[in-house]
Amino acid sequence: MNSEKLPNWRGAKAWVCAAGLGLAAAAGAGCTRTVVEAPPQPQTEVVTVAPGPDYVWIGGYWGWSWGHYVWIGGHWDRPDHPRAVWIQPRWEHRGDRYVLVKGYWR
Description:
The termini are far apart. The protein is globular. The protein has 106 residues and is mainly β. The strands form four sheets. Strands 1-2-9-8 form a four-stranded antiparallel sheet, with no helix packed on it. It has one domain. The protein contains one helix and ten strands, in the order βαβββββββββ. Helices cover 7% and strands 36% of the residues.
């Protein structure tokens, strides 16, 4: 196997697949990030005018990158289908860790 085509695995230990999720939920949520320290309080965002009538505001959230929390700002997006509902990303406290459950359209 050509090592030049291998992905960068430096942060691989921080990634785990969500335990206890059903197959459908895991497929929608993908893998999650786990950390020891609690996330900060959400930042206040200014929600701009929607670019069109069928757009939904996707609120910002705290992500994790290179050993610290980073704010991922909100944005406007179109739902996958007309009655779709956005499930916001969230940090869940599980034992001695915090797990980031990714957002998804339901």
